[in-house]
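Key result, reporting period 2: structure in, sequence out.
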């Protein structure tokens, strides 16, 4: 699934969350952050707000965009685990964020021994011969 949102002076944050009762695994990947039409030549800082292992809120800046020098940043599918909030910490935007959301359904993890390859089923490779001089 594709994800897109825009942060502006009037809408400074966007939270992506999933249903707590959903037992699927969710991955949110941020691929690009860019200034949109109408942006001023000012620093626009986008940060990701999440929770650490002690359940404390932490904010990490992921992009500092300025129209005259860096209007676009590719994040190479920066993976996050929902819930996560994107916040415009400085600037007035508009800043567009794009990425994707993958849902992986958990299946029964029971393992059938018949599916395992035995040594008898493995193909035997020929011996390696030394090179001739």
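The corresponding designed sequence is given below.
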């Amino acid at each position: 699934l594709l994800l897109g949102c825009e942060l502006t002076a009037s809408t400074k944050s966007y939270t992506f969350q999933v249903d707590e009762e959903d037992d699927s695994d969710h991955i949110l990947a941020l691929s690009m952050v860019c200034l949109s039409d109408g942006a001023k030549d000012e620093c626009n800082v986008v940060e990701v707000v999440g929770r650490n292992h002690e359940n404390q809120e932490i904010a990490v800046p992921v992009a500092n965009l300025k129209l005259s020098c860096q209007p676009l940043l590719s994040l190479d599918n920066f993976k996050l685990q929902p819930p996560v909030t994107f916040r415009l910490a400085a600037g007035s935007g508009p800043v567009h964020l794009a990425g994707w959301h993958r849902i992986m359904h958990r299946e029964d993890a029971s393992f059938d021994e018949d599916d395992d390859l035995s040594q008898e089923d493995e193909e035997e490779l020929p011996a390696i011969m030394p090179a001739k001089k």
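Confidence is low (pLDDT under 50) at residues 108-121. Strands lie at 2-7, 13-16, 25-35, 44-51, 57-65, 72-80, 84-90, 95-104. This case is discussed further under Risks and Mitigation.
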